[in-house]
Structure formats: C-alpha cells, structure tokens
Amino acid sequence: MIREVSEFSNPVRAGTRQRGMMMFMLTDGDRRILHELSRNGRLSNKELAARVGLAPSTCHGRVRLLEDAGVIRGYRAVVDPQAAGAAINALVSVAVLDHARSQVTDLVPLMRALPGVQQVFLLGGDRDLVIHVATADVPALREFIRINVGAHPDLGQSQTQLVFEHAVGVAPA
C-alpha cells in the first residue's frame, strides 16, 4: 500500500523490498535534489536546501532517504586522468568466448578490479564488454591489453578506440 504524501514525503511501499532496497517513488523535490547533487556532490546541506527550496533539516532527511533507498549510491571525485598521470584513455570492446557466455556477468567485477580500469559496461550485440581503461602511455595500454585481454582464457576478439575527450555527467554549475 502506498500512502498519500506531500511533495517531500517519502512514498515507500511498506514492507516490500526490491534487491534489498525499499521500493521508492521519486518526488519532484527528490528530482531537484538529485539534479543539484549530480552537478555538484560537494554542496553543503545548507546550499542544497536553498537551491531546492527546502528547510535544511527536511533536505537532509530527503538526502538520507535517497541514500538509504539506494537512489544515491555514492559520491565520487571526477578526476582528470591526464593530471593524475593517465594521459591515455581507451575503450576496449571485447567478445566473450562461447564457453564463458554463462559466466559473462562474473567477468565484470574481475575486469573492474584491474589496475587502470575506470568503468566496465556489459553489452548486448557483437561485443559483450567495453572496458574503459586509463594508462600512462600507449605502451602501457598495449601491455594492459596483452596481459588482461589477449591472454584471458574467456575473452576473444577485441577492438580498442582511443578517447580524445570525455565529458562526464551533467555540466558543472
């Protein structure tokens, strides 16, 4: 049963869980909070509350509910790879071999744990994974692919594209 609620109340389906989280219905206020935090995750609660038109205590409560419901999964720094010594960014598209198809989802955390891997995408289509990797230079990228992709017993053909520019998420405020 869903309770009738105001814009900033928490419409939660009582007693039901989906993948360990309460079923959560976003309000317009929640969407404004998410928009502001996606632009700048370091906003103080006071500043966030002012931007979305809430009392600071109400805003803090809504953010906590969004975190507890799994809508906000974390806060991260957006790092400039070149400034951090990883001048080469590449997307490595990989096909999983037939014998490993049933375990393709197991490969995602394995690939994600490799040094230099920024993101891993599980896809449908002729390639099964895209691995976003950042390395210091082209020889380091070549070595990454040779050791972690080319020699992996479950991975087949790969194709690598260099990233010239990468814009992340919502433009800064």
Write the layout of secondary structure elements.
Layout: E1 12-18, E2 21-24, H1 28-39, H2 45-52, H3 56-68, E3 88-96, H4 104-112, E4 117-122, E5 129-135, H5 138-150, E6 155-162
Antiparallel strand pairs: 1-2, 3-5, 3-6, 4-5
Helix pairs in contact: 1-2, 2-3
Quick description:
The protein has 173 residues and is α+β, with helices and mostly antiparallel strands. The chain has helices spanning 28-39, 45-52, 56-68, 104-112, 138-150; strands spanning 12-18, 21-24, 88-96, 117-122, 129-135, 155-162.
Structure write-up:
The chain is an alpha+beta fold and 173 residues long. The protein has two domains: 57 residues, Arc Repressor Mutant, subunit A; 75 residues, 2-Layer Sandwich (Alpha-Beta Plaits), CATH 3.30.70. The strands form two sheets. Strands 4-5-3-6 form a four-stranded antiparallel β-sheet. A two-stranded antiparallel sheet has the order 1-2. Strand 4 and strand 5 form a beta hairpin. It is elongated.
List keywords for this structure.
single chain, alpha+beta, Arc Repressor Mutant, subunit A, Alpha-Beta Plaits, 4-stranded antiparallel β-sheet, two-stranded antiparallel sheet, 6 strands, disordered N terminus
Shape estimate = elongated
Number of strands: 6
Going by helix content, strand content and strand pairing, the class is alpha+beta
How can the largest sheet be summarized?
Answer: 4 strands, antiparallel
